[in-house]
Amino acid sequence: MTHDKPKAVLHVDLDGAAHIYRHHGWNYPLDHDPLFETGIANLLDFLAQNELRATLFVVADQLDHPKSRALLQRAVDAGHEIASHTLTHPELRRLGRDDRRRELVDSKARLEKELGVTVRGFRAPSYQIDRETFALLAEAGYQWDSSVFPNAKFARQLEALSIEPFPHHPLLDTPLLELPLPDSPGPVPFHPSYSILLGQWYFERGLRRHRKTGAPLVMLFHLTDFANPLPGDALPRTVLDNWRAKYYTLSNLSAAEKRRRCQRMLDAVRRHYRVATTRELVAEDVRERKLVLGIATTHETSAALYRGHDCLAAISEERLDRVKFSTKYPPKLSIESVVNTAGVDPREITDVVIAGLPPGKLFKRFVANQADDTFEYHALNDYFPHANKLLYRAFAWTRSLGYRGVLGFLEEKYGIRPRLHFAPHHQCHAASAYRTAPFDDALIVTADGVGDYVSVTVASGSGGRMKLLHSIGYPHSFGQFYTACTQVLGFRANRHEGKITGLSGFGKVDPQLYDKVRSTLRGSGKGFKLDKRYYSEGIIRGWSTKALKRGEDLFETLQYRNFKAPLRRLLKGHSREDVACVFQTILEEQLVELVRPFAEQTGLRNLCLAGGVFANVKANAALFRGLGFDQVYIFPNMGDGGLSCGAALELLQAEPRPFDSVYWGPDFTEAQMEAALRAQAPAGVSFRRYDDVERVIAELLAAKKVVARFNGRMEFGPRALCNRTILYAADEPEANNWLNKRLGRTEFMPFAPVAMKEHADELFLGIQGTEHALKFMTIILDCTEFTRQKCPAIVHVDGTARPQLVTADINPSMHRILTHYHELTGVPLLVNTSYNMHEEPIVCTPEDGVRAFLDSKLDFLAMGPFVATLAGTAELPQQGTAHGARSEVEARR
After folding, report:
1. What is the edge-to-edge ordering of all strands in the sheet holding 800-801?
2. Is 118 helix (H, G, I), strand (E, B) or coil?
3. pTM of the entire structure?
4. If residue 161 lies in a helix (H) or strand (E), which one and from where to where?
């Protein structure tokens, strides 16, 4: 049946000879436009003969000529739609915002007034469209645009990951539609204006290519395709310009011959498409972007599900497979979890975004990166490890070969095959921070070990657009620098860098040691470089059989080091505290030196940070305060686990919109919690349900009991933000030692605090500008004297703390606990540490929570409305009945 065919629409750009001449810098000698006059007359006859209606894109200043106005009115009377091709046919990219707006607004108004039509559509001259023009079109009341080709060039022009060939919304939260033009198989478009000259074969080749997409076809004609040849007195006098003018106006062919060729092309289209109007296409064939699934692929795989700006669910694979920093790909458990948590129909997932380059692009970077590294001679001993370096980098590339496997899983699991997109690693980091920031204009800095063979980027963000200003390639990496310190001091890479941050507070900056470590850098600031005599990624020393048995990725089980023997010899004789202090100091200095020129150059007063390096709360504070920014924001899941969010947000091109919490993980019912507690009856668990469980928890904490808290949706990211957390009074400085020992941890950083926001000024100094970051425990503050005296367990040796500030609307349960605790003790603050055993991920399910409770032998577990204890450790509160305890369940019986 005819209606089974996809739609094709006919568009015609009505550029007159005067507009073509002006575009090419020629003087148009006539006071009338024979190209426009003959072209539109011949066009209308062609359309009438084929019984078709088209959309005509009019340059509004054609209405200055009475004959042109009459011809346009004839087109309107024949039922053809009128769209805008601007007011004067300028190069939009050369215009400022106000002049550009005037071209859009005034052309629409004039066409509507003088022709009595409603102008819904637009096409930019020379297809000069960008995000700002999209926004202006939406503001001016246009319904759709058709200026974009779905190819890599236009994706870069629009700062988009990719452009699909179907009608779609190019901007989030605006009704404006984009009707893409068909992409070309060659260097020029295959629409009739070029195919008239290149031949029917060129058009048919392009048509075959477009048909494979399954998308509707926008068949674009120009007035030159139908007009009579220009008369001699209208052509330039010089030989070259005369030839070019004939070429661009198709004056080297008769109108009859051009019409014959156009008819052949139209006939080819009608064999495969049903020719419809643009109004029909817009009403019926728009591809809505419903749900977007972001996938993180590297050191911590994860999945995030978005509907527009809103994150419906996000989780890292480690929380489900219980392997810390799990690298399993595809992250099947995470994908299933976000679909179930969000409670959506998986068939609504229209797009999947991979946080990483596809294999082809990544391979080019791999080769270039390896070549640069090989020929960058530092010392003879640098060349021995190159085989290992090659392996290290090749692993990242071979892993990318499996990125498309996520589509196979989705098809097998849910019977869907969404569109697949790829976003560069550091672009995803930048998007995660900027597109969720509480401000619109910002300097964006990303830094980690490596991602897509890049380690650092600096970008500016404004109006939802990010512009890359600078990048540093691998292996010259702040992450590698800090990890080398982690390893040389005997700790595990990519796990224990936080211990170095804590340890640094106990050391001093020994000038001799500082000079030694500083000498291991061959460049600083924008030109940061590691001296490869001291640093080298991927020197494999063995592998961990235990890690393999736990199910960790093969490459992750390899025991490799990021430093060479000369670095260890250089640091010999210095205390580990001093070494940590010097590395921390140099990291902070180098970050400040890197960012300073861009802060000065752009004048941007807000700072966005993402990437694993910015898990370092001291470095975050140093950057913010050292450069005097007004505000700072760090994406809460700043490491690779957060890339899934950044990938989705970058595809959506979301303008900055902040959130107040990252409770995006799964939630569990009371019945599920009770079942998990009952199941541990043989282990001696007993519990009660309390109506006012927050008051009971506060009383237990005031009585110096340790309470594990499991409540609501799980946090997304490395920080325990009170829903999977361990709480304790902050007045015991020794608590860091004995509680960490009970949890099997070795930490040098004190516990972090959670505090009531309304009391923040009593507790901390220098809050201004960090307010949003303090919701997520991502920056340090100096403590007041009150906090130093009353809450020593959370005060670092340098007088700082890493607080989370809560409000009644963000986490009502935790706020009630703090309120009751404050009433009982006069202190509006508690110790808040993550609910997990050493080297395990934070607990996710009720079963995880009970298991960790049994292993740690903490005093109490407060799971939802239940409070549980273990036989022989503590008794359930007897006063619970007075506070609303209803039924005591003795799970031991």
Report:
1. 764-765, 781-783, 800-801
2. coil
3. 0.88
4. none
Residue 881 confidence class, pLDDT cut points 50, 70, 90: very low
CATH architecture of 670-889: Alpha-Beta Complex (3.90)
Dihedral of CA 720/804/501/430: which sign? positive
Residues of the chain with CATH 3.20.20.370: 2-284
Q: Is 373 helix (H, G, I), strand (E, B) or coil?
A: helix
- Dihedral (CA of 362, 364, 370, 373) sign: negative
Cβ(155)–Cβ(427) under 8 Å? no
Which tokens hold the place of 394? 């090749």
**pLDDT value of residue 687:** 95
Alpha-carbon distance values, 569 to 145, 488, 534, 542 (Å):
65, 10, 10, 22
First-to-final CA distance of the chain: 72
**Residue 91 CB neighbours (<10 A):** 12
Query: At residue 818, does pLDDT exceed 90?
Result: yes
Q: What does the pLDDT look like over 337-354, one tens digit per residue?
A: 999 999 999 999 999 999
Q: What is the C-alpha to C-alpha distance for residues 152 and 740, in angstroms, rounded to an integer?
A: 52
Binning pLDDT at 50, 70 and 90, where does residue 381 land? low
Q: Which long-range contacts (CB under 8 A, 24 or more apart) does 100-107 make?
A: 100/132, 100/133, 100/136, 101/136, 101/139, 101/140, 104/133, 104/136, 104/137, 104/140, 104/142, 105/140, 106/60, 107/59, 107/60
Query: Beta-carbon neighbour count of residue 228 at 10 Å?
Result: 17
Cα 616 to its chain centre, rounded Å, is 21
pLDDT 10s digits, 450-508 = 898 899 999 999 988 999 999 999 889 999 999 999 999 988 887 888 889 989 999 99
Contacts of 466 (CB under 8 A, 6+ apart): 159, 427, 430, 431, 434, 444, 459, 460
Helix (H, G, I), strand (E, B) or coil at 808: coil
What pLDDT, on a 0 to 100 scale, did the predictor assign at position 893? Answer: 32
- pLDDT at res. 884: 40
CA atoms within 13 A on the CB side of 306: 26
Q: What are phi and psi of 866, to 5 degrees?
A: -95, 145
- CB-based burial, 229-238: b 16+ in 10 Å, e otherwise: bbeeebbbee
Tell how far CA 145 is from the center of its chain.
26
Within 13 Å and on the Cβ side, how many CA atoms surround 441? 7
Longest dimension (CA), the chain: 106
- Which residues are within 8 A (CB) of 406 and not within 5 positions of it... i.e. 6 or more apart? 295, 329, 330, 335, 352, 354, 420
SS3 label, residue 720: coil
Q: Does domain 2-284 have CATH number 3.20.20.370?
A: yes
Q: Which residue has the tokens 């009585």?
A: 703
Q: What is the DSSP letter of 714?
A: P
- The whole-number average pLDDT for the span 80-104 is 96
d(CA 624, CA 603): 14
Where, residue-wise, is CATH 3.90.870.20 in the chain? 670-889
Whether residue 820 contacts residue 813, with contact meaning beta carbons closer than 8 Å, is answered with: no
CA distance 620 to 615: 8
Helix (H, G, I), strand (E, B) or coil at 477: coil
Residue with the larger pLDDT of the pair 447 and 739:
447
724-728 and 860-863 beta bridge pairing = unpaired
Segment 322-334, tens digit of pLDDT: 998 898 999 999 9
Cα atoms in the 13 Å half-sphere on the side-chain side of 135: 13
Is residue 475 reached through a cis peptide bond, with omega within 30 degrees of 0 on the bond before it?
yes
- Identify which of 192, 197, 246, 223 has the alpha carbon closest to the alpha carbon of residue 33: 223
- Coil, strand, or helix at residue 617? helix
